[in-house]
Write a structure and sequence with these properties.
The protein is of the alpha/beta class. The protein contains nine helices and 15 strands. 50% of the residues are buried. It binds threonylcarbamoyladenylate and magnesium ion (MG). Magnesium ion binds next to loops. Required for the formation of a threonylcarbamoyl group on adenosine at position 37 (t(6)A37) in tRNAs that read codons beginning with adenine. Belongs to the SUA5 family.
Length: 329
């Protein structure tokens, strides 16, 4: 690994967007904010840049990347959209929805970024800075979350810097992100299937479709032959401290990740307490989730005890990430 790169951190604004576009064109690695989490971008057409990206994250190259584009017209040069895909793109782009679609015949995205699959994941982010970079750059940018592989996704530039300083060329600081969990991933083949719950609630998608989304079969995650969702490795999003779910009380040597107004036994004696949302607001909880996991992880508690979070709306994505965090690494 070529660590010891000089990583430049720029506040978004001024010449930062032009600098980001120039860096991408030259094959550089640029971390930038999206509405979901910070992404680590590379030019989708430059295999050497993409190889550096996998190396910088320590990510296995069989786990493909999401191509980010400025609009649906750009997306259609990369992927084949059926009627359902068009319907979802028109309803939710720009926004926290990724579609997995068959590649076009002349798909410009490098094979390395799609792990040799004949499908490609694609999204149009809603964040102003991400959109400005995509417009200035003019092509597709592949961008996984800007964290070391397996670590908690970054929701601030400081999180990115703590994982990737010395490993990337440029970090654009656009402040904390709005959504806080990664995009929802839907595969559109014969029937639309939910591959990853995320920042766009399943219910919103089902309302547009007029029917339920198919679920990912449990074994699809571990089937190495041709995994449907290659990145949904069971352990992921993990802090170093073990995570204990559905806590109804907490011990003095534990840290507590709370939710809602009701307290639980032992909270006043716990090593640390952070509340995802005292008002019980799932959007607020999603926005706080990864930052609070990082903060509690730093307290070196025996475990992070987590109170139950309701499973509807963004709660599905929050519980998915918590479940993966609890499996550990
Ligand atoms: O919100 C997000 O989606 C963020 C921001 C930066 O856009 N990106 C993100 O990327 O979460 P990443 O690499 O951390 O997660 C992408 C997921 C992985 O689980 C990967 O396996 C899956 O998308 N994926 C990519 N291409 C795929 C494909 N062709 N078929 C199935 N899954 C795919
Ligand atoms: Mg990730």
């Amino acid at each position: 690994m070529k660590v010891g790169l000089k990583t430049q951190i720029l506040p978004a604004g001024g010449h930062a967007v032009a600098e980001a576009a120039r860096c991408l064109t030259e094959g550089g690695l640029v971390a930038f904010p999206t509405e979901t989490v910070y992404g680590l971008g590379a030019d989708a057409t430059q295999a050497p840049a993409i190889a550096r990206l996998y190396e910088a994250k320590g990510r296995p190259s069989f786990n493909p990347l999401i191509a980010h584009v400025a609009d649906l017209a750009a997306a259609r040069k990369i992927a084949r959209f059926d009627a359902t895909a068009i319907q979802l793109a028109e309803a939710f782009w720009p926004g926290p929805l990724t579609l997995v679609l068959p590649k076009t015949d002349n798909c410009p995205v490098a094979e390395l970024a799609t792990a040799g699959l004949d499908t490609v994941a694609i999204r149009v982010p809603a964040h102003g800075i991400a959109r400005d970079i995509l417009r200035a750059f003019g092509g597709a940018v592949v961008a996984p979350s800007a964290n070391i592989s397996g670590h908690v996704s970054p929701t601030t530039a400081a999180h990115v810097a703590s994982d990737l300083t010395g490993r990337v060329d440029l970090i654009l600081d656009g402040g904390p992100v709005e959504v806080g969990v990664e995009s929802t991933i839907v595969a559109c083949f014969d029937v639309p299937m939910l591959l990853r719950p995320g920042g766009l609630p399943r219910e919103a998608i089902e309302r547009v479709l007029g029917h339920a989304l198919q679920r990912l079969p449990e074994d699809a995650v571990n089937d190495d032959a041709q995994p449907l969702a290659p990145g949904m490795l069971a352990s992921h999003y993990a802090p170093r401290t073990p995570v204990r779910l559905n806590a109804t009380s907490v011990e003095p040597d534990e840290a507590l990740l709370a939710f809602g107004a009701a307290g639980i036994g032992g909270a006043s004696a716990a090593k640390a307490v952070m509340n995802l949302s005292t008002a019980g607001d799932l959007s607020e909880a999603a926005a706080n989730l990864f930052g609070y996991l990082r903060a509690l992880d730093a307290r070196l508690a025996r475990t992070i005890a987590v109170m139950p979070v309701p499973h509807h709306g963004l709660g599905e994505a929050i519980n998915d990430r918590l479940r993966r965090a609890a499996i550990g690494r």
